[in-house]
Amino acid sequence: MLIQSGLVARGTFVLCEYDASTGSDDLTEISRKVLGKIPRTGAIRSYVYAGHTFNYLLEKDLIFLCIAASSTGSELVFQFLGEFRRSFESLSRKLNGGNREAELTRMLRDLISRYNTDKSKNQMRQMEQELEDVTDLMRDNLSKVMERGERIESLIDKTSQLKNESVSFRANAKKYNDDAWWRDQKGS
Question: What's 59's domain CATH number?
Fold first, then answer.
């Protein structure tokens, strides 16, 4: 699972949160501890704590925090945080009343689920594409090597033929020189 948990808070007061992790770590408790330690300066940061990356985005007085597996790339995490912020702001403008927290939590759950599903499928497709590209490259290289092998074989045959022709030429040239020498000897 890439994105394991997320929340949005004003200071240390959590407005909505969702924990998609299935492990033994209580990410809700850990995220609240981390939330109190986040400095209110800077816009985007990441920290590694308890085997997870804690990534946050500060926007005015709101903190958007997501907890991801340490193997998750920062590009994906910050893309998630940006989309989380946009979705939260858009939805919170529309909502009023008692079901606001439930709707925001549902939005966060769906967003985390989509990122975990779509992004892992995309990563799998990307890995399959890279594997296919490498396979094609290897096939191309192999055919070039085989083609070179055929050319080398052809060159070896031509070299052998040239050697035979040069031996024949040398013998004929020697015979011609000998004949010419005898003619000169007879004519003198």
Answer: 3.30.450.50
Give the pTM: 0.61
C-alpha to C-alpha distances, 169 to 118, 164, 185, nearest whole angstrom: 74, 9, 24
Q: How many domains, in total, are found in the chain?
A: 1
d(CA 135, CA 138): 5
Sorting pLDDT into bands at 50, 70 and 90, what band is 42? confident
At 188, the pLDDT band (50, 70, 90 cuts) reads low
Q: What is the enclosing helix (H) or strand (E) of 58? A: strand 52-59
Structure tokens at 127: 């890995």
Sheet holding 13-19, edge to edge: 13-19, 3-10, 62-69, 52-59, 44-49
